[in-house]
Amino acid sequence: MLANPQPSRAATLKLKQYTFSCRHADAGCSWKGKVTKENEHATKLCRFRFLTCLACGEQYRAGFRNEHLDVCSGAIVVCPHGGRDCLGPRDSGTYARRDANKHANELCPNKPCGNLPFCRTRTTAANLLAHEAACIFQLREQGLMREQAAQQGVALAQAQQDKAALAQRVEALTSALKAADEAYEKERKRRRNLEDECADLLADLREERRRFAPLNGSGRAADEQRFAPPKPAWYRCSKDDCTWVGSVFEEATHDLQCPARPVKCERCLEWYPINRREKHDSECPAAPT
């Protein structure tokens, strides 16, 4: 066995030809290069290499130093209420982030009253609760809030009354519409029965004419003209604002659907054409203001 074995020159040259990825590739590094340069890149240049924070002792990746400083518990921060000189001496308002709660709750004498910008009082956390309970601006704000709550209660009660009145009106209109539908259906059935009766009478008259036709052959043409079905007469609506013209058989249906049919106002009890409802509502003397 050789005392000092030497690496194969051919193997070394072959190894140098291979391309290697950074050991931090799983974290997002896209570097690729020779194996002889991988260690230098991974320990000195790679932005995904781990570094130890001198302030808090935790590790972070080199390329994310600013993100670590935003949450670092050992980073130096300034009091948001009293500034750098919060306690009086120079830089007495600077402290590590881990001590922020201690400074705010025990040391800081510049915590503002919750009624800013009206109240300018600044004191410690221990004295702030007692001050805010007796602060004149706090009492004034509570009074305004109670007044607003009372106004909102009145508005809510009025809205509920309006809702109840609207529900009653909707119920009344629904009942009226249902009654109108029933009346229309009843009239339509009555007209259909009348038409059926007229058709039966006409059929009976024709049968009688055919029975007595042999007795009076000369009067056959006159009888046919006499018992022929009547031609439908035309009817024109009598309302001033309606131009409808149709058969007399359609007169009753049109009267129920006529756009100029009169309706009675529920507030002032006056009659007006239904197609002028908006104009009447705007001029109604009993309309709510």
Features:
mainly alpha, two-stranded antiparallel ribbon, 12 strands, 289 residues, coiled coil
Average of pLDDT: 81
What is the rounded distance between the termini?
Answer: 116 Å
Q: Which class of secondary structure composition applies to the elements?
A: mainly alpha
Fraction in beta strands: 5-15%
Task: Produce the secondary structure layout.
Layout: H1 9-17, E1 20-21, E2 32-33, H2 35-45, E3 50-52, E4 59-61, H3 65-71, E5 76-78, E6 94-96, H4 100-107, E7 111-112, E8 122-123, H5 125-134, H6 136-212, H7 220-226, E9 234-236, E10 245-247, H8 251-257, E11 262-264, E12 271-273, H9 277-283
Write a structural description.
The N and C termini lie far apart (116 Å). This protein folds into 4 domains: 15-71, Herpes Virus-1 (2-Layer Sandwich), CATH 3.30.40; 75-134, Herpes Virus-1; 151-213; 236-289, Zinc/RING finger domain, C3HC4 (zinc finger) (Herpes Virus-1, 2-Layer Sandwich), CATH 3.30.40.10. It has helices at residues 9-17, 35-45, 65-71, 100-107, 125-134, 136-212, 220-226, 251-257, 277-283; strands at 20-21, 32-33, 50-52, 59-61, 76-78, 94-96, 111-112, 122-123, 234-236, 245-247, 262-264, 271-273. The protein is elongated. Strands 1-2 form a two-stranded antiparallel sheet. A two-stranded antiparallel ribbon has the order 3-4. A hairpin with a 6-residue loop joins strand 3 and strand 4 (59-61). It is mainly alpha-helical and 289 residues long. The chain is built from 9 helices and 12 strands. Residues 156-211 form a coiled coil.
